[in-house]
Structures are given as structure tokens and as C-alpha cells.
Amino acid sequence: MNSKEFFAELTKFAPQYTSLLIPVTIAMCSFLCISALGHKHNDKILKAKYNEFTSLGENEKISRYGILLIAALFFSFWVGDITYTIIDFQQNRKWYLWKLHWFPKLLS
Q1: Longest dimension (CA), the chain
Q2: CA 14 to CA 35: how far, in whole Å?
Q3: Tens digits of per-residue pLDDT, 2-39?
Q4: How far apart are CA 80 and CA 4, in angstroms?
Q5: Which among 1, 14, 18, 23 is least buried, having the fewest CB atoms inside 10 angstroms?
Q6: What does the domain layout of the chain look like in residue ranges?
Q7: CA 92 to CA 60: how far, in whole Å?
């Protein structure tokens, strides 16, 4: 086996490129859904608690929306990461099997 054949075989074995389009789209959709549902929920709670003509609930409204956006952002990051991991694992199963199963056995 010459070097050209060796590197050709190594290229077939190397992990393939995984597109970010699907995970980012799913994460963006989850962010929008969580934000919309949380906005509806917060409006319902604040309207029941405060009169809409007073400004007493402004501090609570701002803090609720801030917490909602931070929670939605972290959850969408998590959803995007899990989606990317699943797609990447399905695409590169042979490489992960070697990396996580056979390589540690070789080292031991």
C-alpha cells in the first residue's frame, strides 16, 4: 500500500461535514415558540394581577420578560446542540465507534 492509497482510505474514514442549517433552524423555531408562549403566559398573569392603566407592574414585567428570554435562549441552545449531535452521530457512526470504543482499548 503506497501513501496515496493510505490517505485515500484515511479520507473515507475521517468524519464527514455536518451542516448547521437544520439544527440552527430547529433551535430558532424552539426559541420563537418558547418566547411566544411565555409572552402569552406572562401577559395573562400580569393582567390578572395589575390594572392595565397603572404602572405598578412595570418592574415585574421587565424582570419576567428578561428571565423568559434568558431561559428561551439557553433552551434553544440546548435543542440545537442535541439536534446537531444526533445528526452528526448518525452521519459519522463509524468514526465515533472507533474514537469511543476501539481507540481506548488500544491504549489500555
Answers
A1: 82
A2: 39
A3: 777 877 776 676 667 778 899 999 999 999 999 999 99
A4: 38
A5: 1
A6: 24-107
A7: 48
